[in-house]
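Collaborator request, handled under Task 6.
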Amino acid sequence: ALESLARYLSTTSDGRIRANSVGAGGIQREQDVRFVKEYSSRTPAGRMATEDDIVQGIKFLLGDESRYVFGQTLIVDGGFSIW
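Structure tokens returned to the collaborator:
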């Protein structure tokens, strides 16, 4: 739903709104060690995300570096979704 909302806002605002979304992967907190090991083995990055990993993607979308990015979803998942 958020991806569709980002696309809708970006295409109906005459370029005034740059709406994007972030598709975050699993963030390591206090999960069971076996879960973390299994999840990590399924990502090319070999680990779960930290909160800072996700924040960096958000900072990119909020900054001038993404001024030509409209209606996109930035996947920040350590490569989990490419399998």
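The cover message to the collaborator said: "Strands lie at 21-24, 73-76. The chain has a mean pLDDT of 96. Please let us know whether this matches your experimental observations."
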